[in-house]
Amino acid sequence: MLFRRIILTAFLIGLLGGIVLTGLQSVEVWPVISSAEQYEQPETDHPDFSAAHNDDVPEHTQDHEAWSPENGWPRILSSSLSNTLVSIGFATLLLALMALLQLTGITRLNTRRGLLWGLAGFAVFFAAPGLGLPPEIPGTLAAPLGLRQMWWIFTILMTSTGIGLLVFSPYRVKVMGLVMVVLPYLVGAPHYSGALFSVTDSHVVVILHHLQQRFWLATGVTNFVFWLLLGSCCAWTVNRWILKDIDHHAAQA
Amino acid sequence: MSTLSLSQRQVLQPAKLLLPQVIAALAAGFLVVMAVGFMPLDQVHNASHDTRHAFAFPCH
C-alpha cells in the first residue's frame, strides 16, 4: 500500500533527519538561543509584546505556568523529539510530492534531482519565509503572532506552487510561477515598527544584534544541510522502494 | 511514438488509483509540520520551542 510505504519511509528518513538536525543545532543554534534567553525580559514588562502574545493564548492558560522542559537533558530530549517529528513531517511531504509527480509522469527522480528537490525545500520552508520574517532569537519583538503565521503559510504555499510551475510547466505558464514566488513580498510580511528587542540597555542590544546575525548564519547552514540530506534520501527511496513495483503492476493491468 | 504511448499508459494507469493515497500522505505530512510549528497549546510550544526558532517558524 503506497500510503503505508510513504509514511514508513518518512519515519525512517525523519529519524535520520532528526539526529542530524539535533547534532547540527547543538553546535551553534542552541548556544545562541540560550545566550539570548539570558537577556530576555519577562513578557509582562513590555506592553506591546504581551499584547501581541495574548491574542493567541486562551486566558485560562495564563493563570499558571505551563509545563516546560527544564534546561539540560529534558530540554535536549524535548528538542530532539520535536526535531524528529518535524523532520518526519517534511519527509512525508517531500515523498508524497515526489511520488505524485513521478506517478503522473511529470518528472523522473534520481539522487541528483533529489538534491535539487532539497534545495527547493530549503527555499520554500526557510529562505522564502525568512526573507520576510528572518529567524528570531528569543527576546525579539515582532508583529502579532497570528498575522506572521498566516503570512508564513501563505508564503510557503505560494513559493512551492510557484517553483513547481517554474520548473515543470510549459513556457507560457512559467510567468505565473514567477508572480506567485514574488507575490508574498508584494503583499509584504507583517510589519512591526517598535524596538527590535524587549531590552532597552544599549550594550545588551549590541550583543543581541550580534547574536541575531550568528543565529541567521547558524540556522541557514543547519537548514541547508538538513534539506539537502532530506531531498537526496527521499529521491533515492522513491525509486528503490516506494514506487518500486508500481510500473510493473500497471503493465499487467 | 508507440514506446512513448506505452510508457504513458504504464505511468498514468496506476496514478489515478494511487492518487488518493498520495494526497492523504501529503495532508498527513502537512498536519505534522503544522502541529510542531504552529500548535498554540503552551506545553507544545514549550516542548518544540528551540525547533520552532531553528526553523524560523513564527514563535511568541
From TrEMBL, chain A:
InterPro entries, sorted: CbtA_put
Glycoprotein found in the keyword field: no
Residues annotated as transmembrane: 84-103, 115-131, 151-168, 175-195, 215-238
Swiss-Prot/TrEMBL keywords: Membrane, Transmembrane, Transmembrane helix
Coiled coil: none
Region (Disordered): 43-69
Pfam families linked to this entry: CbtA
Biased composition (Basic and acidic residues): 43-67
NCBIfam families, A to Z: CbtA
Protein name: Putative integral membrane protein
UniProt organism field: Gynuella sunshinyii YC6258
From TrEMBL, chain B:
Keyword terms: Membrane, Transmembrane, Transmembrane helix
UniProt keyword annotation of Transmembrane helix present: yes
Domain of life from the UniProt record: Bacteria
InterPro entries in the cross-refs: CbtB_put (IPR012667)
Cited Pfam families: CbtB
Transmembrane segments: 21-41
Annotated protein name in UniProt: Cobalt transporter subunit CbtB (Proposed)
